[in-house]
Write a structure and sequence with these properties.
This protein is of the alpha/beta class. Helices cover 31% and strands 20% of the residues. It folds into three domains: 163 residues, Adenylosuccinate Synthetase, Chain A, domain 1 (3-Layer(aba) Sandwich); 92 residues, Adenylosuccinate Synthetase, subunit A, domain 2, CATH 1.10.300; 157 residues, Adenylosuccinate Synthetase, Chain A, domain 3 (Alpha-Beta Complex), CATH 3.90.170. The structure holds inosinic acid. The site of inosinic acid (IMP) has 20 residues, from helix 4. This is Adenylosuccinate synthetase.
Length: 430
Amino acid sequence: MANVVVVGAQWGDEGKGKIVDWLSEQADVVVRFQGGHNAGHTLVIGDKVYKLSLLPSGVVRPSKLSVIGNGVVLDPHALAAEVERLSEQGVSISRDNLRVAENATLILSIHRELDALRESGSAGTKIGTTKRGIGPAYEDKVGRRAIRLMDLADLPSLREKIDRLLTHHNALRRGFGLDEFKPEEIYEELASVAPKVLPYMDAVWRLLDDERRAGKRILFEGAQGALLDVDHGTYPFVTSSNTVAGQAATGSGLGPGGVGYVLGIAKAYTTRVGEGPFPTELHDETGELIGRKGKEFGVVTGRKRRCGWFDATLVRQTVRTSGIDGIALTKLDILDGFETIKIGVGYRLDGQTIDYFPASQGAQGRVEPIYEEFEGWSGSTAGARSWADLPAQAVKYVRRIEELIGAPVAVLSTSPEREDTILMKNPFEG
Ligand code: IMP
């Protein structure tokens, strides 16, 4: 029996929520392994709508164990607030169904402030971040000065750790001409939130290994998308974590052998929020129309998403960097009624044709997409539940995508409704 990792195969917002929710129903354990509350998932279960940022999607279902792994950066206030919000909606959260890695790095108010300061343009390149403090917290992690969840359980030594952290941050603050942080304020902030988050703390690596050995089904829930990966994405316009599937192992403490089937989620077109290169972006009425039909606004920040055609070259690359076994293709119905549809199949760069997305920032900004043009379909794909329900041209479009990206479409999603799905392969069945 395979475990399953779900990763976004583009720049995030591929519609992971619906797919992860469907898979979490079949899973025993659902694990977040990177990112933080920069993610946003909307789950619709029956007549209830749940908005999740930090908690794994399994949390809204009884008898599922939700796990936040060490690869996540954890804002303790955001966790406490999300738990409270869900409790108000009738979801009960306790140590019985939620565990958080003791070695997860904490996001503090100093990280949120620094993120916002940099994004204000007065201090460095604007990335278009979610201003949740994600990047600064990861910086402190690799800088070996972060405060981690377990540190909240040892308040006497916490003061020392805060002093070390502030040696770095206050030097930065002085450089920006800002007031220094007072260690006492950070200490109070942490000491007051500690009782709300410590009950969930655990050695998650051990727990997951036990669950795996007991034959439980584990679902790893990726956030953002592979093109926002700090190594493999459109650097520096990326998030600060590894978002590719390999991170499921590192970010949870379960070895790579426990990871299993990799399901990539891709939209039938492309979107991106924030700054950075986007070769198939549409700056015209067609792009506006896709955005309107697809309701392309961010769950977390409400920002309008940039829209463009499906870029097969990029997805082929993420299929490889994440070892994607199959794709869940979402939002095909948004392309219903378009007279012509294009797919990016390669790039022209400085007079040459290339079949991959180059790593250099300059080249990423200069590539021009080469398109294959398709006749659209006049019928509707919305709500289709079998191949026979799809217009012939839509089937042709999907088949061409499979050929170009080098991976099969395992799941085709034709509306936000859970039942409006065509299933070719259940990822949990290997
Ligand atoms: P950060 O993760 O807040 O540092 O933002 C870095 C980049 O990742 C920005 O372009 C964000 O718009 C993007 N990003 C972060 N989280 C998400 C997400 O959940 N969906 C889509 N883009 C995201």
